[in-house]
Amino acid sequence: MSLSLSLAFALPANQQAPQANAPGSVVRRIGTIKAINGNIITLAPDSGPEMSVSVQPNARILRTAPGEKDLKNATPIPLQDLQVGDRILVGGKLAEDGSISAAAVVVMKLSDVEAKHQQDLQDWQKRGVNGIVSGVDPAAGSVTISTARFPAKKEVVIHTTSATVIRRYAPDSVKFDDAKPSTLAEIRPGDQVRARGNRSADGNELAADELVSGAFRNIAGTVNSVDASSSTVSVHDLLSGKSVTMKVAQDSQLHQLPPEVAQRFATRLKRMAGGALPGATNGSSTNAQTSPPASAPSGTAGAENGGARRAGGGPDLQQMLNRLPVLSLSDLHKGDAVVVLSTEGTAGTGSVVTLLTGVEPILRAAPNASGASILTPWSLSPPAGDNGGP
Q: Whole-structure pTM over 0.70, yes or no?
């Protein structure tokens, strides 16, 4: 679980000093408690190896809620209330052995973090909108997206202000927590965007509190090879005729579609044949859209044939995938038909977001490889790693 603490954190006046890595210097570290033994905490920092933190008898220990920007509402907490999994920000002197003698500790309890994540997920579901970018106007502070509401699509204008939190997925990451601060100027047509905020009565506009964007690509083809040592898979892309190598990361989703589900998608693609569904592009994100937004305004309306369904839209693919058994890299074999959604990546090698096998009926129904677009728009994963999406 990843969570950054952005707090006005002050050490006692007699310890104020420029941060450095020399023994005796005052340092701050953020991470997760891995173990506690008396006043000794084993800290797994957000970067770097584990380290030992010795909490001094006179140390200030404060509990703060997720989302707080300062310590005005923080409350004192005894050392014995700290638990494995809690997020902490420690400040103190660095010892020669690399440990920290902590004079102050700010704590975000694991239970508080989980509760906040659940609230955020519910808010994304209630007030979220998801789609493919069709236009960007940085001067006006707006982004226009096309949301796929089968059998039709809808244009939504997302308005931002200086208070809107804007992030963008890193080229090689599929995790929301790895998204970096960004601007509208980085967003391009064809990118995927997810935003949450207050919608207009007709649903055509949204005043965004938060917006996350990313560039992804769709691939439909057959497996060339699998390299377990490098955790990569090579796929022959039917559209370009070229081989594409992708990393399979810890957060990648690999699933096999049941035959009846694959057949339903194939039937759906056949009904949309004749130009209604553009072919997926390779090497960049796609404007092809067949799956519904991950958060329709009315929320989840039930299930159909084992797959969740959004009010006013088609089956929610992400929720359906979450119910399927997970495949491993060793389950993939040369010649397997697959559709893949991947990150753009760097140096030509992206990371798999979602890979589906059992898709032969889909590729037969969409020989121009537009079957890959069933994964677009993808439900960008939110804080806490919920695969259903912000």
A: no
